[in-house]
């Protein structure tokens, strides 16, 4: 039998050259649903296996992917961007402004709210809007920073290269967007987002658990705390870069600098 797609000889249920099914029924609602179910939610589907293993054993799932098991799981980069897209889709369907959502996420209660209508508030709103419009890029930048500290500082003996060290951050950071989605649902149903301190605690714990699950050449407790080191070093570097960029913006744009002056000194 010749493959419908590429013309190669087919002896089984799927073409060995392109993966096309050997028998394809006429397009109908039922056929489309069955195909969707088989590819996405079927027993052998990648998505349920990826969700299950990233929840239970994120480190081992990342390690299996690194060890050339590319059939069982969604790729880390694809899963990362899939989850960001899904979060935006849920927010859109629920009618929730992402700027408001990110503002809640940025408020950790360690500093007072800027005065309404002040230059500080305007600058904060503009910054959050910029992050919201470029969330994929901002989130993406975190991955190589974490991978850098993982590869060259905390897990140098793992024998994994830099790109391989990006797999776990892509998977774990992507998977943590489920918490953001739950927070959006909580706001839609209860009128309140999940407190940021809860999201942060769960996120850090999950990330560290991922490192302890992946790097088992040493004690899991040691890997857990090294994962904590990866997180905090990455946050320190991101904070430093943010501060430098902010200073440059303030120096290069006097009108922005004026926004931070007290009203009586303008």
Could you please describe the fold and organization of this structure?
There is one protein chain. This protein has helices at 29-41, 46-56, 58-66, 76-94, 98-106, 119-133, 135-154, 162-165, 167-175, 177-190, 196-214, 220-252, 254-258. It is mainly alpha-helical and 266 residues long. It has one domain. The chain is globular and about 70 Å long.
Name its key features.
mainly alpha; 266 residues; single chain; 68% helix; 0% strand
Describe what is shown at a glance:
68% of the residues lie in helices and 0% in strands.
Tally the helices.
Answer: 13
Residue runs with pLDDT of under 50 for 5 or more positions? 108-112
Oligomer: single chain
Tell me about the largest β-sheet.
Answer: none
Number of strands: 0
N-to-C span: 81 Å
Mean pLDDT: 80
What is the beta-strand fraction? under 5%
């Amino acid at each position: 039998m010749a493959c419908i797609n590429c013309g190669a000889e087919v002896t089984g249920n799927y073409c060995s050259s392109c993966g096309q099914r050997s028998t394809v029924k006429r397009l109908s609602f039922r056929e489309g649903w069955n195909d969707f179910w088989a590819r996405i939610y079927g027993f052998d589907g990648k998505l349920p296996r990826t969700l299950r293993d990233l929840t239970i054993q994120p480190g081992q799932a990342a390690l299996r992917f690194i060890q050339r098991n590319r059939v069982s799981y969604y790729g880390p980069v694809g899963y990362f961007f899939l989850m960001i897209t899904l979060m935006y889709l849920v927010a859109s369907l629920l009618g929730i402004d992402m700027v408001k959502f990110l503002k809640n996420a940025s408020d950790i209660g360690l500093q007072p709210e800027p005065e309404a209508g002040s230059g500080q508030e305007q600058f904060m709103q503009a910054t959050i809007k910029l992050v919201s419009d470029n969330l994929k890029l901002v989130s993406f930048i975190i991955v190589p920073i974490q991978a850098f500290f993982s590869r060259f500082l905390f897990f140098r003996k793992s024998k994994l290269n830099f790109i391989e060290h990006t797999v776990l951050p892509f998977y774990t950071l992507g998977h943590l967007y489920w918490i953001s989605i739950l927070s959006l649902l909580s706001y839609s149903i209860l009128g309140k987002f999940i407190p940021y301190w809860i999201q942060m605690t769960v996120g850090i714990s999950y990330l560290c658990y991922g490192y302890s699950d992946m790097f088992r050449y040493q004690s899991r407790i040691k890997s857990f705390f090294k994962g904590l080191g990866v997180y905090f070093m990455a946050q320190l570097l991101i904070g430093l870069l943010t501060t430098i960029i902010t200073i440059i913006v303030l120096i290069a744009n006097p009108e922005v600098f004026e926004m931070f002056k007290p009203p009586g000194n303008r």
